[in-house]
Each structure stands twice: as structure tokens, then as C-alpha cells.
Amino acid sequence: MTQFKYISSITSQELEEDFVIPCCDENNDSCILIKNSLKKTVQSSYSTDNLDVKLNRVLTRESTDYYFHIIRAKKSDGYSKQQFETIFQYVFKKIDKPIDDVELATLITSLEDYFKITPEKNKRDIQVGVFGELLTIKYLYDIGYQQIINKYHTNFYSKHDVEISQKLRLEIKTTTSEKRIHHFKHNQIMRRDVTVLVSSVLLEESKEGLSLREMFEMVIPLFSDPDSLFALKKLMIKCGLENEEYNGLSFSYEKAMDDIKFYDADSLPKIPQDSFDGVYDIEYDVDCSNCEWIEPNNLLNVLGD
User: Fold this and answer.
1) Quick one: 24 exposed, middle or buried, by C-beta within 10 A (0-12, 13-18, 19+)?
2) Mean per-residue pLDDT for 121-147?
3) Given 56, 149, 203, 303, which residue has the most CB atoms within 10 angstroms?
């Protein structure tokens, strides 16, 4: 746990040498000082739903001026304090040079997604999909493809869940139906420029099964990169796991590991045309049940090609 000491207790040496300093203000609210790259004294302030941001502040110690930005947690409940601690550890603590007010504002905007809570009506679908993604990561890691840790969601703007290489993509599909039917966007599986593999995950709900929180706890230790760990923390919040007493949906882990199958998208039923004039956002369901799947002993070879 980070020690947030009072701003008045920060030494001149810390102000001189450190780029990021955790502290508390006069109201005992958690704050973070971020060293300013500019000796800018035109102050400004703004607030988001979760953070108060003070830009271009000047702190004086022993007649010397130090230029910082100040970020404060708006809420003081236990959950908010935990979230503030997390963004310090995984985001702000990584800052290795002074930054100006524009750079900080961009960073703050990107952080707001971390605090968003998913509406209850959407939680089930998100939890099912994320469980399938994490199970696929664990399966591939266990069979010897440890590189998957470095590739999972490194590009959130990609059409596919994982970019294995320049010419190979992985799309992860999960269903709680007994039938291996998945929903695809046409441009996910109809590709001529890259090879697309599809991980098909069948989940069976079980009260005695593995919970989504336990799935996260199983997979997170495989990661070491701070950006990946923070992404997983954000994913937990998106799944509604911000309350430690709530574990999410539970599924039969062993059955899901036994039932997982991988396909080359070329072998799946699809509309055999790249695009249609004036028609966009084409999506449809695909039954993978009778398609040729990649044998486990060949999967590593395919991933390594």
C-alpha cells in the first residue's frame, strides 16, 4: 500500500528529484503531484466524475519554487481510495519525466473509463465474453504458447481480439448455448489479407464452478507488464467486479477446457463476398459445429507460422 503523506511533509529533495509524489492535502484526501515540464504559472482547474485536477501549481520550499500539477480523488469511500491507489501504481508511477498540462489532460481523459461501472443489464454478456477470452489465454499458455501474454489486447482498436503476427489474427467467441453457434462481423472472418483463427468456447454455468473473479486471479499472475496488468484491472471493473464480495458468474472450468476448439476462419460458413456496394456493418451467426477444426497438436505450429 502506498504511503500518502501530507504535502507539507514533502522534502525539498523529493520536490527536486521526484517526478511523481503521492501525498495528502490538508483535508487528508489522497493526492498525486506530477512534475510540470514547464515553468508555467497560469493556473487552471477542472473536475471529472472521479478526479479533481489542478494544473500549473507552484510549491515553494526554502525560497525555491517547484512546478507541479495536483490530482486529487473526489471521493473518499473505500472503493474510490482503492481505485486511486491502483491508478497511481499502474499509471502515474510509470511517469519518468515531467509532463505539461496538455499531456496530463490527455492522460486523465483516458483514465475515466477505469472508473465507469457497467449497467446491470449488460454485465452477463460481458462476463461470458471475458471468461471465454481469459480461458483461451490460459489454454494457449498451458499448451506452450506463452507469447499470448504479450499479445492479448495490445491494440484495442483492432478488429480482432489478438494480433498474433502481421499476418495472423485470433478472434475469441464464447457461448453458453449447447450449440457451437457464434456471432461474427463479416469483416472479421472474410479476410484475404490475413489469416484469422477462431477460438470457440462453450461455457456451462455451474454454482460449484470457477467464478469469473477466480478466472482473473488465475490469469493475472501470468502477466508482468504494468500496462497489461492495468488493462486487466480495467476489464475487471467493466465486468462489475469492483465489489470484492461479488465474484461474477461461475462456469465449469474443466468442461470448458475440454470443449474449446480452434478453427481457421476460411473453413467456416460465410457470405462468399468481400463487400457489397452501399451495404455496411454486415453481421450474422455462424454454426461451427460441423466445420473442420485444428487438432491441438497442430495448433502450436499454426500459431508459430
Assistant:
1) middle
2) 94
3) 203
How many domains does the chain contain in total? 2
Q: Which letter does DSSP use for residue 166 in this model?
A: T
131 shares its domain with 149: yes
227-282: pLDDT as tens digits: 888 889 889 988 989 888 899 999 999 999 999 999 999 999 999 887 788 888 89
Q: Are 139 and 149 in contact (CB under 8 A)?
A: no
Going by their DSSP bridges, the two strands 64-73 and 51-61 should be labelled as antiparallel
Angle of helix 212-219 relative to helix 120-142, nearest 10 degrees, comes to 40
Q: Determine the structural domain holding residue 104 and report its residue range.
A: 5-115
DSSP reduced 3-state for 138? helix
Q: Is 133 exposed, middle or buried (0-12, 13-18, 19+ CB in 10 A)?
A: buried
Reduced to 3 states (helix: H, G, I; strand: E, B; else coil), residue 83 is: helix
| The three three-digit cell numbers of residue 110, written as one number | 483516458
CB-based contacts of 290: which residues, under 8 Å, 6+ apart? none
First CA to last CA distance, the chain:
44
Rounded distance between C-alpha atoms, residue 149 and residue 291, angstroms: 28
Residue 139, CA distances (Å) to 142, 178, 208, 289, 303 in order: 5, 20, 21, 20, 13
